[in-house]
Protein 1
Amino acid sequence: MTDRTIAQSPNSDLDAEALEWFARYSDAPDAAYSDAAFRNWLAGHPDHETAFSRWQADWRQLDALPQSGVERLRLQLKKDQADSAKTSRASERKSSRWSALIPQAALSAVVMALVIGSGYMAWDHWQQQPLFAHIYQTERGQQLSVQLPDGSRLRLDTATRVEVSLYRQRREVKLPQGQAVFEVQKDAARPFDVVAGNIKVTVVGTRFSVRNTAGNPVQVAVEEGKVRVSPCGSAPESAAVLLTAGQQVIAGADGHAGPVGAIATAGIAPWRDGRITLENVPLSEALAEFERYAPTHMVVRDTTVGALRLSGTFDPQKLAHFRYALPKVLPVRLKVNGDLTEIVARH
């Protein structure tokens, strides 16, 4: 800011007087010169115009703020001055000695600190506002492709919700449920974070998938480029895991990643091609995966049957193929009861 040496001189009250005039005409400082009282004040001392000009120069340095921030500061300055005047009158009625304990130089310094501090807070608030914010969501059985303003592309699977926020210095997507493929536009100045469960995936430019479905750990798989997987919060650097193309990891409930493994032969997201790939998963989990796409009207009540392991690739929209294959690959049979089919052990 500008030099405030006047506030330390014997005429430091001139600075406070100049501030009062500036606050009165902060919307249009040049208009003050048409006020006869203001011109008389200027003529009363050679330092008056210098003090007033100094306040104008201080204010111009806040012009980098958005217009809304500047207007808020102007209004706040006027309010502070009005509140200060009321407080001063009340203090004078209580005890005149307080006016001797608060020199005008200190008052000027305090008000200026408020203006500068308010300017910083307004600037910081402005910086924290997203340039773009939107929520994308798919229903059961629906998929959605989205292109973001920064050029990144998202592919949402069924029953998925993402919350996108693009800021001036960073990009963030929250994935509270479902799974999605991210094709991130490279921008070294603005990292791209995906937050799912208790993990954060940070990239600059790459293509990867994140899965965060109820009852299952978060899974991250990389098709192209590199991603950094770390627990949310203030975890040590050693807790982060770097994944490259062809690798995947599953994170625990605490956000810490397990061992790095190779992605399945079906790729990071076979659902993009309308397929469900099951690799040695319990039958109960296989049914839950089908249920994400459409009602199956199938249940398994026997925990032993539900624990049977199943592998294969299926079309979730063609449940009849799954029903046909199930008794052929597992020791089970289908017990039909009206609209509901129970999967039971074959004896």
Protein 2
Amino acid sequence: MSVTPVLEPIDAYELWAADYPAHAHNPVMHAEERAMLELLPRDLSGATVVDAGCGSGRYVRHVLARGAARVHGVDLSPAMLARAEAELGSDMSRVVLSEGDLDALPLDGATADVTVCGLTVGHVEALEPALAELCRVTRPGGYIVCSDVHPIGHALGWLRDFKAGGRRYAARHTSHLYSHWHAACARLGLAIEQVREPMLDPRDIPANAHFDRKALEVPVALVFLLRRVGAPVPGSQS
């Protein structure tokens, strides 16, 4: 049995970009997206939104559909940003795409009324610096809607895997427990407003699909609605 090579995120997404859709394309993503869209404000008319880890533009399209006036999409991968630009087409008139790390976003403080970060924080090893950046770019009183693969999946050995050039690869992923989120949010001045732990919908699973049947019994994502309520505690990232 062959071992799936685990790549650094930048290398993984450079390979994956050519075939990466701008929509939820597997059962885990469908479950995660339903929870994210439930927590995302329905009316974003006139709002400025940051999509941190925007990839091919999946959530950029959703926030534009809800009326966002300006969207700043940031991603580590130039190939994924190019894919997003191609997918967004005429909607690019309201979008600015930038290359940058999740823990060093190339944006001014308090840029966003709402910040979105979908299935990205697991690609950084330290949670708190990434959350600190999401907090920094969000205005006081603004919201952050953030998701990651559930830590249960990591414990069961699930991979963020994909195929490229006829081979299977995986992107490196670090599990962040709920206790880590709770402690980091407390130090950073982020209120945890709501939490979702979505389960798979069997209707999303293709017939004859080969997958871990335990996935039907456990949550597959951890999804947060956070509100920036204050300044970070001094020294909280040390």
Protein 3
Amino acid sequence: MHRTFEETLTELIRPEVEGTGCVLWGLTAPTKGKKRIIRIYIDGEDGVSIDRCAEVSRLVGLMLEVEDVIPGAYTLEVSSPGLDRRFFSTAQMRDYVGRKMTARAYEPIEGRRKFTGELTGCEGDAFTLDIDGEPVSLAWTDVKEVRLVHEF
């Protein structure tokens, strides 16, 4: 099975993050021009402080230099997932049943790409949103991004 660059990087970085007492929430590694931006999202039981982000950034930065897995120039950013957190798996979504989510699909599904509704369940690699009283099931592989909608 072929692994993506992000999956390989996640496996390398996870032990470093967990060694600080944090959880690796997710990671993105888009390329911007000739430079790659490595964004690591960390979480902790009591949230994440700026000092904790700096500590993780320092440790992961050192490890990435030693391992030399990223070709060319890159920027490393470390932050908390935030109030409108992005999800990186359906397993992460399970604790958020009953909350409002927005999912964006790669390709239109029944004429739409954007779905916003209440998360009613997660099963395997699919999840269901209640959109205006209609259940809509989406496969994880069909969605580009799923985020929590923070309601004040």
